[in-house]
Hints:
The protein has 244 residues and is α+β, with helices and mostly antiparallel strands.
Amino acid sequence: xxxxxxxxxxxxxxxxxxxxxxxxxxxxxxxxxxxxxxxxxxxxxxxxxxxxxxxxxxxxxxxxxxxxxxxxxxxxxxxxxxxxxxxxxxxxxxxxxxxxxxxxxxxxxxxxxxxxxxxxxxxxxxxxxxxxxxxxxxxxxxxxxxxxxxxxxxxxxxxxxxxxxxxxxxxxxxxxxxxxxxxxxxxxxxxxxxxxxxxxxxxxxxxxxxxxxxxxxxxxxxxxxxxxxxxxxxxxxxxxxxxx
Length: 244
């Protein structure tokens, strides 16, 4: 599973390489692709380490690709031996409407435990009636309900999810966009197949302080109700972002 994820990443980066893009329609095609790759390394107060990388690519024809990949240790060492990833393909229904169709592929370490999810995302900060409000706050917010799921995770019969994602750039001129607050909240509705329903949170809220260029010191508050114990913790470390 890990090699398959690395293969997806390699293929994606290869497709974005200048030699590949410019061979189709020279510089015009490359100028239509933008996004970032960022790398995060944390130590968690629950005595484990996490390496995370995120990829965002704004593609032609109103498509967008976003993924997050986590490698985590089971103890205080840096031996990263568990794996989790989400690959998202989004398509805007209209160039002037802040609504996207979403397809999410969830990958986990192990066999027969991956998921496909279908949903719809609303980018509240891009809505005409709300855009000026979010602009004043230097903020963005989106909500993505995904109630259709093709599930192979045998540990849970069925689960639907609502994702909330936000970011606030604290950007007075003197600070030069030096501080940001951002994160996500996942509301998970877990069905056991016998009429039982439980509700679980997975959420992370990150404070970032820019050190130099795109290098940040980060502090993150985390909740994960799927952990057997110690659901709450803090992560601290470094983030580096590559913008293209």
